[in-house]
Give the backbone structure.
Amino acid sequence: MSTICRLAGRKLPFIKVGLDRPNFLQLSRHVTLKPVSQPVRGADHDDHNMSMNRPMSPHISIYAFDIISKISISHRITGTMLGGYTILLGTGALVLPNKVSHYVDALQAMHPGAASILALKLVLAAPFAYHFCNGIRHLVWDTARFLTLSGVHKTAYIMLASTFVMLIALLFK
Amino acid sequence: MALSIALRHANKFQGYSTLSKCLLPFYNNAASVTCASTHTSDFNKPLLRNGNISILPAVCFLTTPNTIFSNVNKSAVIAQNVRKMSGEDHRALWKIEKGISALLVGLLPACVAFPNPVLDNLTAILTVAHLHWGMEAIAQDYCRPILVGNAVSKVALLAVYVLTTTTLGGLLFFNYSDIGIGKFVRAVWALQG
Ligand code: HEM
């Protein structure tokens, strides 16, 4: 038994990776098995977390806010912007004293200038182009394709390039 | 010696036992399955394609040795751990949500390219349906009862339904009484500086 322990603790001469040569014990994974009581399972995610005493889990701040995270939250932000425009048009049609198209004519009558029109088109078209292209990316994922780290990155660059092309096309059309 | 071998391989046995738990549902239900684990199954939803597992969530298995080696009824374990978000089965609705998103890809450009009442109304209905589920997801994410309390959470969801209703009504009214969504987009895009 002591021989086994001694041999197991020796540095392994035939493994050259890394600065420190591992010994046999370090090569095997140490797993501690300990009994834990089964958490009370609630009806949903919230109940479950509540019973585990985890008010927010997984906590978002433990993750790096990298490019992929920014692209991801941008889908929600652009979706919310488009939703805002949609709600504005719908409620506007209901509550404004005149027809909505009347205000489009009134805006034209003001001759707002090329820069203002371009800015208007930008705030409308940019979220749309982004959400449109990234929405397609989401739908591709939903067919279980490109769900790897490299797939997520590759599709992100394709999406950003398509968004740019689409935005330019929409702005100067 | 036998003991040390058994101990060293214990994690493998554990791996096999949990792996088989994960794989078993694939035979039972190839459409949508959930990985069974004792603690974290709420977050698990393996995705499959052509019957292969694309993603298996990384989970930490900490179970009593008893559970690992005892001959538990595996389907009972799975049945207990199938993910039921908010206690409902969301699979059918999920397909409708994604189907409508896919329809929007063709419908929105078509509506602006060929404005007519049918496309205008279809755009109004499908866009608002998509918007409804989007807002609902956002409300459920940020206004969870555990974070903001039951009352605020309910009010947020109610607000989503109010916005959905007024927006759909408003857009249909706009299509009926004004120039319609397709022509409206064209009118905005025709604005001169
Ligand atoms: C071709 C057009 C569109 C496509 C393909 C599309 C696709 C999608 C998809 C796949 C999602 C779900 C994202 C996820 O799984 O987390 C989503 C979310 C959303 N979409 Fe769209 N969308 C489109 C147009 C729109 C429009 C016009 C609006 C506004 C009325 C909109 C508003 C939203 C909102 C508010 C969300 C929720 C954001 C979130 O949950 O993170 N989308 N969209």
Summary: Chain B touches chain A through 60 residues (CB under 8 Å). The pocket of protoporphyrin IX containing FE is lined by residues A 75-76, 79-80, 82-83, 86, 131-132, 135-136, 138-139; B 101, 104-105, 108, 127, 130-131, 134-135, 137-138 (CB under 6 Å).
